[in-house]
Amino acid sequence: MRGAITNPQSRFDALRETYVPELEDRVLAEAEDLRDDKTQYVLTHPKTILNRILSPDVRGEWGLNPYQGCEHGCVYCFARNTHNYWGYSAGQDFERVILVKRNTVALLDEALSKPSWRASPLMVSGNTDCYQPIERVEGLTRGVLELCWRYRHPIGLITKNKLILRDLDLLRQLAAHDLVHVAVSITSLDESLRRTMEPRTATAAQRLEVVRQLSAAGVPVRVMIAPIVPGLTDHEIIDIAAAAAEAGARAINYTIVRLNGDIGEIFGDWAREHYPDRAERILARIRDCHDGKLNDSKFGRRQKGAGVYAESIAQRVKIARLKFFPNTVATAKSLDDLPPYNTALFERYRPGQQRLF
Asked: Which pLDDT does position 270 carry in this prediction?
């Protein structure tokens, strides 16, 4: 099962096809192919693996993504638009054509070994999930963790997959030296909704078990109630926060969905297919949070939205923090509720001759 039910052309395509009635048979045949397709993996060999984070809305200075495209298939995912740069659609192509950056670990090793490098937390999965199914085979994320442990370099991870528990040994070691944070995203506790909106992710129960096991191992975990979909999932804020606290999460944070680029069309088609009686109301609520549009790209408010409805969501999150996470401050400062990263160890654990200087 896929999240997107459509496969719009890349916005960079020079030529676009317009379908006419006499081509109906061909269109139906292509649709059948999409339903029966298998995931394809394309090996890539980029020249660099780190990207500098310029957005003030995102933590950290450097991002790293071992995979491009994501088999999890979350229909709302903002990263879908990046698939266009590779010549693929933001729709089903994003879920079924996964680019594997096979030389990820070697490139990171090269970057961290430079005398000019200064330790700054790496954010892994800021774009696509580093624990999507192909990670079981490729092991790129585990390789990154092993490298960070060898260098004693801080790292942050975001995921929706229970596969992260495979690496509990490394995460425990890193956490013992304040070198790792983990964010687990939980969008809904409703399994029927999860199956259609995030079809190839772990269940909410499995994600809560991830939180439980990581917390028990001393790994600092934050639950991201993200993205909140106004009119569809915002009524679950308190319940998710309660479940996160019970599982041992140290904090919660949230974002409000924004349907940038092709995602507006993809999400709209999905909503009308699965929730025909509520689709327009859901889309209207999303617009209520973004000045009448489905997307707001302005720094400072694009993740939290603006307006009365967005403020009501913010207030519910504030109440949840006060009730279930009383040790955190229910303001923007609550983003600093996990222990600070330890960057001091990095210089002492540089390999080879660098340790002499």
From this structure: 96
